[in-house]
Amino acid sequence: MYGRERDYVTLKIFARGHGETCKNEFRTYEVLRKANPSHPGYHYVRTALDTFPIERPGGEHQCLVQEPMWDSWKDLLRRNPSGRFSDVLLKGGLQHLFRALDYLHTQCKLVHTDIKADNILHAIADPEILTSFVDGEMEAPSPRKVINGDPVYMSRRFGLPKEWGRIILSDFWCVVDGDVKRNHNAQPDVYRSPEVMLQAP
């Protein structure tokens, strides 16, 4: 439980040695949360509910608390035998994505630089998804193995929702300040424009 209105949260625990990356990402989440919550695109970017450190022998781990999400666009394509989106899903999803980018660019003055299918998530509109997930784990726990004394669990997939949630732009660790001129490579190679890859003037 996390607060009164949320039954479930996700917890991302960062590996030690990523302190500076964590600080930058956490600062970004603070900007995303505060810039302008009344903007129409605010509800299409993933924000942080909380951040905190965990003390462990050998150093601390930074932790990020967020609302749980359903599959990414990449996962959704893998689930679909045709490997394609329907027109309705794609058009609606792109509208949400453009609103998220408008919020990011105009209100937060940030540039994502790493937009790809696995960073575009679906919000959970059907609470039964989470209930079924938890019930399934309680009835038949995921297989696990122990590596160096630590248990590692196999991931369990969510079921299909009865309705699609809104599109959420996520994963802001590569974000840069939009007010600063830059010339470094951004985006995965598969999405990078030819003129950038060829360093054409």
UniProtKB/TrEMBL annotation:
<keyword id="KW-0723">Serine/threonine-protein kinase</keyword>
<dbReference type="GO" id="GO:0000245">
    <property type="term" value="P:spliceosomal complex assembly"/>
</dbReference>
<keyword id="KW-0808">Transferase</keyword>
<feature type="domain" description="Protein kinase">
    <location>
        <begin position="1"/>
        <end position="201"/>
    </location>
</feature>
<dbReference type="GO" id="GO:0005524">
    <property type="term" value="F:ATP binding"/>
</dbReference>
<keyword id="KW-0067">ATP-binding</keyword>
<dbReference type="GO" id="GO:0005634">
    <property type="term" value="C:nucleus"/>
</dbReference>
<dbReference type="InterPro" id="IPR000719">
    <property type="entry name" value="Prot_kinase_dom"/>
</dbReference>
<dbReference type="GO" id="GO:0004674">
    <property type="term" value="F:protein serine/threonine kinase activity"/>
</dbReference>
<dbReference type="InterPro" id="IPR011009">
    <property type="entry name" value="Kinase-like_dom_sf"/>
</dbReference>
<dbReference type="InterPro" id="IPR051334">
    <property type="entry name" value="SRPK"/>
</dbReference>
<keyword id="KW-0547">Nucleotide-binding</keyword>
<dbReference type="GO" id="GO:0005737">
    <property type="term" value="C:cytoplasm"/>
</dbReference>
<dbReference type="GO" id="GO:0050684">
    <property type="term" value="P:regulation of mRNA processing"/>
</dbReference>
<keyword id="KW-0418">Kinase</keyword>
<protein>
    <recommendedName>
        <fullName>non-specific serine/threonine protein kinase</fullName>
        <ecNumber>2.7.11.1</ecNumber>
    </recommendedName>
</protein>
